[in-house]
Amino acid sequence: MGGGVRNALLGLPATDLDIASAALPGEVLALPLPGTAKEINRRLGTLEITLDGVRMEHTTFRRESYGPGGGHAPERVEIGVSMEEDARRRDFSVNALYMDVLSGEILDPTGRGLADLQARVLRTTTPDPAEILRDDGLRLLRLARFYGQLGFRVDAALVREARRQKGLIRDVSRERIAGEMEKILLCDVKYDKVSRVHPVLRALELLHGTGVLEELLPELRAAEGLPQKKKYHKYTVLQHILHTVACAPPELVLRLAALFHDVGKPEAVDRNGRMLGHDRIGARIARERLPEWGFSREITEDVAVLVELHMYDLAGEARESRLRRKCQEVGYRRFLQLAALREADVWGSGWETGPVATAERFRRVAAQMQAEGVPMSLRDLAVSGRDLMEELGIPPGPEVGRILRQLLVLCANKPSQNTRERLLHAASPRRGAMSEKQT
Ligand SMILES: Nc1ccn([C@@H]2O[C@H](COP(=O)(O)OP(=O)(O)OP(=O)(O)O)[C@@H](O)[C@H]2O)c(=O)n1
Which GO terms describe its molecular function (predicted)? Predict the structure, then answer.
C-alpha cells in the first residue's frame, strides 16, 4: 500500500514495501513465515518482516486520533479497524491506494485515489484538508516533496489550507523536520524526469508559496522582494536562492549550503544599499537554524563553513600559492564542495550554465596538490612534535604546535620539503622567527 502502490502505478522507482492488513501483530508473528518478523513499534502495531533478504513493514489497519497541536504521536491508536478507516487516517489520496497481494487487484478505499492519480493531482484522503494537516504538521513538508518528486499539481483547496495552517510546522519534532527536509532537498535523486522544472525547485517553490519555508527560515521573508543589484543576476535574492539549491549537486550539505548562502543578504544591506558581510551573517543564521531543524552538529558546521567561504576569491585574483594554502586549511572535501557551490551560485543566477572559471581553478589546484602528495594535516608531516623537542631541544608548550603548523603551511607550496631532514632543518635556524610570527 501507500507509496509502493502509487509509484508502481506511475512507473516510478520503487519505495519501501509497506503492507497493511486486518491481521493483528500477534497473528502475523505466529505465521510460519519463511523469513524473520519482529515488532518495531508496539503502540502502532508495526512489524518488520524480512523475506528472501527483502525488508518490508507490516501494519495492522488502524485509526488514529490527535489532540490539539498535531505533529506528535497520535493521542489514541485503535488497531483492528477496516481498510476504509485505515485509508482515512492517511495524508493524500494517491498515498492511500492498496493492492491485494494475492490477486494483484488495486483497491481504492477513499474512492478518490485512482482518479487523482490519473488526473495527477494531490488531494487529501478526506474532503477536509484542514483536519489532515492538523493531524500531522509534517504533511506540509510531505506535500511539497510529493509535488516536487511526482510532478503533480496540488488541489487549490489544499494549497489554501496549507497556507492557512503553515504555523503547524513549528509543532513538528526536530528530527522529523530534518528527515523530511533531507528528502525534499534530494528529491531529484530518484525522480529526475517527472517534469520540466527541477523537482527540488518545484518543492521549494511550493514551500515558499505556502509560507512554510519562511516559518522555518524567517530570514527569507526579507529576501523576497530584494533585488540582487548586480547586472549578472536576473532574479530576486529569494528566487536566486531557490534556483541555486536546484543547481547544486545532490549532496545534502551542498544543497543546505545553497539554501543558506545568501540568506544573510537582507540583514547585510546598509543604509546606502551596500551589502557587507552577508557570508558571515548567513553562516551565523545557518548555525542557528540548522540545529533547530534537527540537523547534527557536523552537518551544521559543514554548511556554515561553506556559507562563510562562498565568496572566497570571487574575482579569481588570488595567487595560486594562496589558493593552495586555503585548500590545505579547509581540506580537499570542503575545497571541492566550495567549487561546486560556486558553480551552483553562478548557474542559479539564471544567465549562465557553462564552465565557471573560479570553480575550475579550485578543482585544478586541488588535483595538483593531491598528485603532489601535499601534507594536509599535522599528522601528514614527516616530523612530530616529539621530534622537534628531542632533535631541536624545543621545550614542550604551544610553540611546538606553532612551529608544526608553520611547517605544514611551508609544505603547501613546497611539498618536497616534507622529509624529516628538511623539516628539521627548516625549523631549526628559523626557530626564533617561527615562534614570533603566528601562522
Ligand atoms: N505523515 C505521514 C506519513 C505517512 N503517511 C502514510 O504512510 C504511508 C507510508 O509513509 P512513507 O513511507 O513515509 O511515505 P511513502 O508514501 O511511502 O513515500 P516514500 O517512500 O517516497 O517516502 C504514506 O504513503 C501515507 O499513506 C501519512 O499519511 N502521513
Answer: ATP binding; metal ion binding; nucleotidyltransferase activity; RNA binding
Task: Give pLDDT, residue 439.
Answer: 42
Residues recorded for the chain: 439
The continuous run of DSSP H or E covering 344 comes out as helix 332-347
Note whether residue 419 is domain-resident: yes
Instruction: Name residue 57's beta-bridge partners.
Output: 18, 48
Residue 136 CA: which ligand 1 atom is closest?
1
The neighbour count for residue 395, using CB atoms within 10 Å, is 7
Ligand 1 within 6 A of CB of 138: yes
Q: How many CB atoms lie within 10 A of CB 10?
A: 16
Give the distance (Å) from ligand 1 centre to CA of residue 406.
54
Q: Which three cell numbers stand for residue 286?
A: 545557518
CB 179 near ligand 1, within 6 Å: no
pLDDT at 208: 97
Domain count for the chain: 1
Q: What is the pLDDT of residue 353?
A: 80
Q: What residues in the chain have per-residue pLDDT under 50?
A: 433, 435-439
* Number of neighbours of residue 404 by Cβ within 10 angstroms: 21
Q: Whose CA is nearest to atom 14 of ligand 1?
A: 3
ipTM score over 0.95, yes or no: yes
Q: Tell me how many degrees the CA angle 225-280-260 measures, rounded to the nearest 5.
A: 50
Cα-to-centroid distance, 258 and ligand 1 (Å): 27
Place of cell 494531490: 122
Q: Is residue 412 part of a domain?
A: yes
Could you list the residue range(s) of the whole structural domain that residue 389 is in? 378-436
E strands, 251-404, are: none
Helix (H) or strand (E) holding 65: strand 62-65
Structural domain includes residue 206: no
- 391 domain-assigned: yes
In angstroms, the CA 202 to CA 208 distance is 10
* Chain segment 212-252, per-residue pLDDT in tens: 999 999 999 988 877 776 666 678 899 999 999 999 999 99
pLDDT number for residue 325: 96
Cell of 158: 489544499
Residue nearest to atom 16 of ligand 1 (CA): 3
218 in Cβ contact with 267 (< 8 Å):
no
